[in-house]
Amino acid sequence: MIEFEVKDMSCGHCVGAVTKAVKQVDPAANVQVDLATKKVSVESSEDRASLAEALAEAGYPTT
Ligand SMILES: [Cu+2]
Hints:
By secondary structure, the chain is of the alpha+beta class. The chain has one domain: 2-Layer Sandwich (Alpha-Beta Plaits), CATH 3.30.70. Helices cover 38% and strands 22% of the residues. The chain contains two helices and three strands. It has helices at residues 12-25, 48-57; strands at residues 2-5, 30-34, 39-43. Helix 1 (12-25) packs across helix 2 (48-57). It is globular. The structure holds copper (II) ion. The site of copper (II) ion (CU) has 4 residues, from helix 1.
């Protein structure tokens, strides 16, 4: 399980965009987003850096 904090998520659109960004790297990824805590949990065979890069490119830098 790879976990990110994505501070710039604020609504359902952001959740969709974040999910899409992860799935572009790994279509088989299991993505769970908790908007209240701004946590994104990803089950993926991809490494953390690749996922973080995709999220940043989509406009959602991770911490
Ligand atoms: Cu939003």
